Amino acid sequence: MRKRRKWIALGMAAALMLGCFAGCGNQENDGTQGNDKETQEEGGEQGDESTAPDTSEHVDLVCYFLGDPPDDIQKVQDKINEILEEKINASITFQFTTWTDAGSKYSMVLSGGENCDIIYTAPYIGYYDFMDKDAFLELTDLIDQYAPELWDAVGERFFEETYIEGELYTIPNNYTEYTTYGISYREDLRKKYDLPVPDSMENLEAYMAGVKENEPDMQILNPQCAEYLVKLDRALAYDKYGLQIPYNDVHDIQNYWGSDQQIADYKKLKEWVDAGYWPVDAIGSSSQDPLVDFESGQTALLLGGNNFSKYLNSKVKMAEQNPEWEIAYVDNTKFNGVTYPAAPYHNGIAIPTNSLNPERAMMAISLLYTDEELNHLLMYGIEGEHYTIDENGYYVEAENNAAYGYEASNAWNFRNTALMLERSSQQELSDYYKEMDAVASQTVTPYVNHEEGFNCVITENTVAETTINALTQEYLTPLEYGMVEDIEGQVAAFMEKAEEVGLSDLQDEVITQWNEYLESKGY
Questions:
Q1: Helical H segments across 7-154, by residue range
Q2: Over 60: is that where the pLDDT of 27 sits?
Q3: Fewest CB within 10 A of the end CB: N or C in the chain?
């Protein structure tokens, strides 16, 4: 097995992945197209001209996506194969994991249990674990020889962020989506009681106090959201094991646990729970989903894990169920001035090591990504049957849309901003992404997602890691929910026990890997 440092976050298990996908919008590319010489030196030299394989023998390819197939997948597959047969003498079969067995299905397929030539990859579905087990082919030479047009079609920046120590195991896409968080709140209550927009810590406190004063029986927020309140004005590149690193000063490693700031945060949370913003018995009442609480009208605020796309979904749902309600959204950038997009490898395309036809697979990938007719078939179905395009160029549902809806194939890894169709209803999302682009461009490391870019793999202090994680649940969670009277005493007790089991050594290991990450990226 090749040994390599994994700088990309492993993400969550497949069972938790459903909430990860935001709505789509046609975004402008970043304008830095192409694979220049510097990138080639990092990831392998680009060939002067493509070398087409012998396509005289017909091959059948298998491509895997996550989730459940749309009803008309066979009909669309047949249309796609008519074109692939003509262009590269190949056909393709689209297979799906179903949502319930994605993890086990991936393990079986990538261990050689089934033939597979093309597969969707993402950190949250274990991509980097599989990469370390040599489940995927290195793609640089295959792109150079059989699909050099992909360098330009995807764009230099997106490939640069995807290479790991000069090796490329997944093809990114150039759709830039922002999944950083913000606050959804009851705008109708704000207007009714003449409260400020909660776009600063001062205004947020005034909004919460005003709602509670006028709606005393209403819970302000689910206690699971509480800990995010005190960190809204801090843009952190890393926040784990008691270490906090500011996004705009990645060399400033701060020890949060045991600090005056931690004590002040817990005192503020205690103040808010005493004001009745969430139940005193927070742990016992925190099992309800915060999103369900907000959409059902039980709470006035939703934050933590709440991005703009989820806000738009809530907006539609709540308007249908309770048209007298109105909600609005404040992005975290209003508090901390920082945002960054999901990493381009968040939805990727890989060729498994056990592929029987990697050359033809790469050619098919390129066609599905760059050929407008093929890309639209895969992403949207058959024009005139599943969708139409109106006079403004927007995607419109057709009569048989239920059998193959917008991106119904779950082929998010084949999103290509040059070809994507936009729905008129997504204009608000598109405008928001453009606003976030402007903010992201002003950061110290523009567009870089450190959360997905850095993964600390604890190897020397695994016992300490496990024990400290248990201690945080025992000592810090009650503090985060505002349930502890003796805050200083609880923090001191936690720090004493954490140091006894090796907190300092664990933090040193994290810091070492963080500095290596910075050096490897040139930050």
A1: 37-43, 73-88, 102-108, 127-132, 140-146, 149-154
A2: no
A3: N
